[in-house]
Amino acid sequence: MQQDTKTHRIEAFSDGVFAIAVTLLILEIKIPDPTAIAPRGLAAALFAIWPSYLAFTISFVTILVIWAHHHWIFTAIKTSDLILIYWNGLLLLFVTFVPFPTGLLAEYLLHPEGKVAASFYTGTFLAIALAFHGLWRHASSGGKLLGVDANSLEYKNAMRITGHYRLGPPLYLGSFVLSFLSESASVASCLLLAFFFALRGWRRNASNP
User: Fold this and answer.
1) CA distance 97 to 34
2) Do 52 and 29 contact (CB within 8 A), yes or no?
3) How far apart are CA 79 and CA 66, in angstroms?
4) d(CA 178, CA 140)
5) Domain segments of the chain as ranges
6) What's the pTM value of the predicted model, to 2 decimals?
């Protein structure tokens, strides 16, 4: 059987997984129980679940940025191999897992065990950053999957992108370490990192139309 070396099926499958992952996030925001809102009212009960809104927003924005970067790098990848498929599968594994630590964080952010929830949450994003970096490193190594020569200008541009994605693991490692000191600071750092990579990605694409 002839091997399909194109990336269209990988992208289509990945888009579906990203769509499902962001959709599942909303399920972690629970509707207040009517029997529990009597003392304070519905408005107060809705305000009280603000950790759920926060966790949902950070996770949604982060997955959105990951999906955008995933789309950008696959515009450069011309062919695929089995290792690329497995790296992509590992990335999607962690992305589909995000709703669970999101719900955990929403439930325990204000709990005495909040640091554990924050560590689990930031640790998940660290795993995503490592998988994404590994995916791109494999795709760009030697320029073979990019369809370019290792001495070409296109390959040199790819190496600059590699430098960009190299920042992900240490920065998210910083968020993970920070979670042991302050759960609120580590969670806030995840949101800031999402905007940081969104801005860097926008600048890169604006300079390379």
Assistant:
1) 30
2) yes
3) 21
4) 31
5) 8-207
6) 0.87
